[in-house]
Write a structure and sequence with these properties.
heterodimer; A: about 400 residues; alpha+beta; 6-stranded mixed beta barrel; two-stranded antiparallel ribbon; 15 helices; 12 strands; about 20% strand; elongated; B: about 260 residues; alpha/beta; 4-stranded antiparallel beta sheet; 7 helices; about 30% helix
């Protein structure tokens, strides 16, 4: 039994050597044959890498929302088919904020948000339509805002309704330039606000800057701009609390605050980062599927190409097959030789394809965070071998079945 | 036993569409070990078919073929392949060498199919190439060898697995007369070393080197005669013909 195993491995190795020498002897043809596989592998790899890069980029970009923070708002972030229901919802008010603040046990921080846009000026510089956010101290926890210089809004600011502001990095760069903004007065709309802090840079998300706004105390906001807008309430969960539990608690509080009956639907939304992720994933599932299909078709085309070329090769080498049989090659020997040739061509194509894809990933890296995962490299090579096996079967069988006498007659 | 080949009533009928073409019509032939035999006949006489059957490339429609006492006419393809590998050595008219492999790899091919180890293969291949005088050309490819050298590589390949029978089909058909002579001298030497040789040819000159000539006509044995083999037209040369092909003949023998 052991001897049989030795002979088997031996003929395996010999088969590979015979196939290799046959392939190396005609490098041009072998390379052209494998082109289809290379293209297929590069296509699938590129699509996988791009999708992976998009996923990572997306995750990074929505990271600013905070994975432990939920947002109680009037509308959901993602509108589905029932959008007509959302239109008529009543707005959220400061009373709802206070209800949550009073009744929630699972929240670490609760921060109200009111938004508008105003032009801003400092000395000779001005900006149009900058975001103005009215909020309070809790926002630094709930929204992960950290002052780089100076301080954040304080409780006193809010209680007294002071005209102070905390500015984003963009405002500092574009309006103040080299001046230190702290202590200076920024004109927002029709009023002057004293700058008490500058926020850490957050970067941008989906092309929009996150540093292009200023924060003022919410009381000041209401006093200056009115209370007719809908409030957004950011709630951060305590450590160890599941987001689902927090959402349940907040839903309960809001329903009571709005006097909803048990059979009534919610007329508010509680949004979280993971909802965006799910939405994104369903969107990209289509792209993913398309990528796999395109890649699959490329490999199929490549495989058919392999089969064709191998068939031509068998025809051209008919006399050689006849000679091999005459000196003692059995059906299995010939079959194995051509199968291995097909598999090797395809595997080389797979490796080259992976190499090209790796090069391409260097180019993609400039736009998207991505890299060629190792599992993909292995999968590509193994899959190529399988393609070679499947599409090499027919030509190999044809070669193995040749009658040696007939074959030897070929020129 | 000393009888290598015993053919009794060997018949081969080819079916082409509705027609049955009889190529061999009852051949009886016995060949002893160590014989040097030529099979001759005009085209259509069936000599190629007979050669294919003797060489186990084909099986007869009817009749019995004993090779070394073993019946082979009903063996499977793989069994026949095994016999061709171990017991028969083929030499073709067109050499049939792998063009992109060197002489060494060409000669070792049957040993690879025999499942031999690399070390053993190297030993036997070197020995075979030495026997035909090509030890120094082991790593040359066929296109780097002359016609005569290529045929010698083919002979080495035929011998490498130490077969009982050497089967040559028009071995000098693609060679000039001087190289033909060298090959026939090689066969003579191999026969003197104890090999059994069956030569298939339509050339009287070549058949003259054999010790026995079997003539076929219309698929049957027409005559079967022993003869004195010729010694070659350049029998006066002192040196071995394939040691130094560039050497010009000594002036003394010019008039022989």
């Amino acid at each position: 039994m052991g001897k049989l195993a030795v002979r088997f491995t031996h003929s395996l190795v010999e088969g590979v050597q015979i196939a290799l020498s046959a392939l190396l002897s005609n490098k041009t043809r072998s390379l052209l044959t494998t082109l289809g596989i290379i293209i297929g592998v590069v296509t699938v790899s590129l699509m996988m890498m791009i999708i992976q890069g998009l996923n990572r980029s997306f995750a990074k970009q929505i990271g600013f929302l905070g994975s432990r923070t939920v947002y109680v708002e009037r509308h959901p972030w993602i509108w589905d088919d029932d959008w007509w229901r959302y239109i008529n919802r009543p707005r959220l008010t400061m009373e709802h904020y206070e209800a949550i603040l009073k009744h929630s046990r699972l929240a670490e921080a609760v921060a109200p948000q009111l938004w508008t846009r105003r032009p801003m000026t400092f000395r000779d510089n001005s900006l149009e339509g900058v975001g103005v956010l009215g909020t309070n101290y809790e926002m630094t926890i709930a929204g992960n805002f950290v002052p780089e210089f100076g301080r954040f809004l304080s409780d006193t600011d809010v209680r007294s309704g002071r005209r102070v502001c905390v500015i984003g990095k963009d405002i500092q760069k574009e309006l103040f330039g080299t001046f230190s903004p702290i202590g200076r007065y920024l004109r927002i709309g029709a009023h002057n606000y004293r700058v008490v802090g500058i926020l850490e840079e957050k970067g941008s998300t989906f092309g929009q800057s996150l540093d292009n706004f200023v924060m003022i105390p919410i009381t000041t906001f209401i006093g200056t701009y009115g209370r007719h807008r809908s409030v957004e309430i950011a709630v951060k969960a305590k450590d160890g609390v599941q987001l689902e539990d927090l959402i349940d608690e907040l839903t309960g509080i809001m329903r009571r605050a709005r006097n909803l009956r048990p059979k009534d639907d919610n007329n508010f939304s509680i949004n979280q980062q993971s909802a965006l992720e799910s939405f994104y994933k369903t969107m990209t599932a289509g792209i993913y599927g398309a990528g796999l299909v395109i890649g699959g078709i490329s490999l199929l085309v490549g495989g058919i190409g392999i089969m064709n070329i191998m068939l031509v090769s068998v025809t051209e080498r008919t006399w050689e097959i006849g000679m091999r049989k005459a000196v003692g090659a059995k059906t299995g020997h010939i079959m194995w030789q051509f199968l291995v040739e097909a598999m090797i061509i395809c595997m080389v194509g797979g490796v080259l394809g992976v190499g090209l894809a790796a090069l391409a990933s260097l180019a993609i890296k400039t736009q998207l965070p991505t890299s060629l995962p190792t599992w993909l490299a292995f999968a590509a090579v193994i899959f190529s071998a399988v393609v070679g096996l499947i599409f090499g079967l027919f030509p190999a069988a044809k070669a193995a079945r040749l009658d040696p006498i007939v074959a030897l007659r070929q020129e | 036993m000393s009888t290598l080949i015993r053919l009794k009533g060997i018949t081969k009928v080819y079916e082409i569409g509705r027609f049955k073409v009889p190529a061999l019509r009852g051949i009886d032939l016995t060949i002893e070990r160590g014989e040097y035999l030529a099979i001759m006949g005009p085209s259509g006489s069936g000599k190629s078919t007979l050669m294919n059957i003797i060489g186990c490339l084909d099986t007869p429609t009817a009749g019995v073929y004993h090779l070394s006492g073993e019946e082979v006419q009903e063996m499977t393809d793989n069994e026949l392949a095994d016999i061709r590998n171990r017991r028969i050595g083929f030499v073709f008219q067109t050499f049939n060498l792998l063009p992109r492999a060197n002489a060494f790899h060409n000669v070792e091919l049957p040993l690879i199919y025999a499942g031999m180890s690399r070390a053993e293969r190297r030993k036997r291949t070197s020995e075979a190439l030495e026997r035909v005088g090509l030890a120094d050309r082991m790593h040359h490819k066929p296109n780097e060898l002359s016609g005569g050298q290529r045929q010698r590589v083919a002979v080495a390949r035929a011998l490498v697995n130490q077969p009982s029978l050497l089967l040559a089909d028009e071995p000098t058909g693609n060679l000039d007369s001087r190289t033909s002579y060298e090959i026939m001298e090689l066969f003579k030497q191999l026969h003197e070393q104890g090999n059994t040789i069956v030569l298939v040819t339509h050339e009287e000159d070549i058949a003259g080197y054999a010790h026995r000539v079997v003539r076929l006509l219309d698929g049957m044995v027409h005559s079967d005669q022993r003869q004195t083999p010729r010694s070659g037209e350049n029998g006066g040369f002192a040196h071995k013909p394939f040691e130094d092909e560039e050497q010009t003949p000594p002036a003394a023998a010019a008039g022989a």
